[in-house]
Amino acid sequence: MLDGYILPKLPSQLEKALHLQKQRERDLLLSTRMPVFDKLMPNYVTASIALSFGGLLNGYDTGSIGAIVHMEQFKSSMGGMSAFITGITVSTIMLTGIIPALFAGHLADKYGRLRLIAPGAFVFGIGALLQATSTQLPQFIVGRAISGAGQGVFFGNITVYITEVAPLRSRGRLSALPQFMATTGVCIGYFACVSTTGQKSSLAWRLPYIVQVAVSAGLTLVCRFLPESPRWLALQGRGDEAQISLTRLDFDLNEARRDFLATVQEQSSLSNWQSFVLLFRRGYRPKTFLALFILSMIQLSGIDAITYYAPSLFDQAGISSTSSSLIASGVSSIAMLLVSIPGFLLADRWGRRTSAISGGLLLAGIMLLMGTLYASGAVTPRSAASWVVVVCVFLFGMIFCATWGIVGKIYASEILPGNTRAAGNSVGMACSFLTNWVVALITPVLLNASAFGAYFLFSGLALFTVGVLAIRMPETRGRSLEDIQASFRRPAQGLLSSLFRQQARTHQGAATAANDSVPALAGENQQEEIELQPTAQGTALARLPSIEAAARGLRVETS
Predict the structure, then answer these.
(1) Model confidence pLDDT, tens digit, residues 186-230
(2) How far is CA 347 from the centre of its chain?
(3) Which of 428, 383, 148, 168 is closest to 290 using CA atoms?
(4) Containing domain of residue 449, as a range?
(5) What pTM did the predictor assign?
(6) Among 91, 306, 399, 522, which is 20 to 30 Å from 115 by CA?
(7) For residue 331, which of 246, 273, 390, 247 has the smallest C-alpha distance?
(8) Directed axis angle between helix 98-111 and helix 272-279, to 10°?
């Protein structure tokens, strides 16, 4: 108030301009907080490594819980547990992650990737703290339920963020970081429990959860200092902020303008509900269903049975002492980690399709061999068959980490369009949590009822997955995220045309002539369907595809 008058409010546009200016100043100030890494690595690598500790949390819990429920100190604190109660205790963290994972992508599309990762990590830490301080089994299960809710919020968005900040030349390696860190976490989790088994008190199983609390707190804090995804900012129409973010991440601006800053202007900005609905519309369904299928079947391969219940599997194979089974589980996790290193480093050199199909065949064969040995009654303590089973457990984990464990999440993030990537990954992550929960719940029951039934089940599921991928999985290695969408913009192919596509490649002359007469699909940015285009009033109008886009959609691919 001045001389009896009330000062008028600033116009809304001016307020927005001032707010944007403050945001830019804040971002420029924060950009000076990462200079120590300039000579070591680009800042987009630093950001990817920092957020990949969310994968470490996931793997650490997976590796430690199987060992913890096997500890005598834990049984003394919580009482004896049946196979079903053990399954409930282990799998609760996945059950409560389903719903948060389902909606995390919608929220991330609206508020940003980092604004979901930070609170998710914080909630995970609260759950870990409850588990560390538990005196009864119900409190322990509630703690795992809370951790699961937090994990459902942050885990899928970590992969989305890394996929969006990574340049084309290193996207495969960086997108594989969360899975690599998860494998590292499994290894650390096992040996953390091995190192505490000498404790006679309940600290033997409480200390691993104290570590979880510390890592969760660190992940929550680091999100405060990282720039938001430039692709997300560009999709929100905040191009200036996207360029600031790109500068902070040491991203090549010319590459950014070529790959996505120009193309995102043509993509519609959709509401959360529209983004979800868009996932299941005609032009998007093949990509959505393939991503959901891959993320679900990765878990149904049996890897969770290996990582969660490795001590029990080794015990069943004849390694009966608690310390020996834990050490064997730890050695198995080391082997998985060592194999993950070349898989991680060579992620951009191996084809996604080749890794997925060859890896699936090997996984199915190993499960079939173990099931056959148990069904024939050949597995007895200290027998040759029991050692074959032990070796097979090692091999299964190693092959999974080198193939499906790396390829699956990368591929699911790559094939989804930018305006539905977070929503699609969240739905996929919810499916992953659901199948993970089912495996963690039923594995101890199946092993208790039939030593071989679980192995035959996982083998059959892996073979089924290979069949689907052989028919419906296009290669994405070495292609920009925008270019990948072109491989799905063509008429649906029948089974025979998919199976005999390799034979069609021999007709190079005809293919070359066809390619010369019809423009290539690479680099197309238009959707072959009606899209929702928002108006200034906030309503969505239908936008028809151009005649040129429709004509391109009629092209018959021969390669």
Answers:
(1) 889 988 888 888 788 899 999 999 999 999 999 999 999 999 988
(2) 15
(3) 428
(4) 43-226+267-472
(5) 0.68
(6) 91
(7) 390
(8) 120
Provide the terminal-to-terminal Cα distance of the chain, rounded to the nearest Å: 73
Task: Give domain status of residue 111, yes or no.
Answer: yes
Residue 346 corresponds to which tokens in the numbers above? 């060579």
Residue 338 or 257, more confident: 338
Between 285-298 and 421-449, two packed helices, what is the crossing angle to 10 degrees?
Answer: 30
Amino acid at the residue 541: L
DSSP secondary structure letters along 40-95: TS-HHHHHHHHHTHHHHHHHHHHHHHHHHTT-HHHHHHH----HHHHHHHHHHHHH
CA distance 288 to 456: 29
529 occurs within a structural domain? no
Domain count, the chain: 1
Higher local confidence (pLDDT), 275 or 321: 275
Tell me the two tokens of residue 528. Answer: 């072959």
Residue 335 near residue 397 (C-beta atoms within 8 A): yes
| Structural domain includes residue 505 | no
Instruction: Flag whether 208 is in a domain.
Output: yes
What's the CATH code of the domain at 418? Answer: 1.20.1250.20
Backbone φ and ψ of 159, nearest 5°: -65, -40
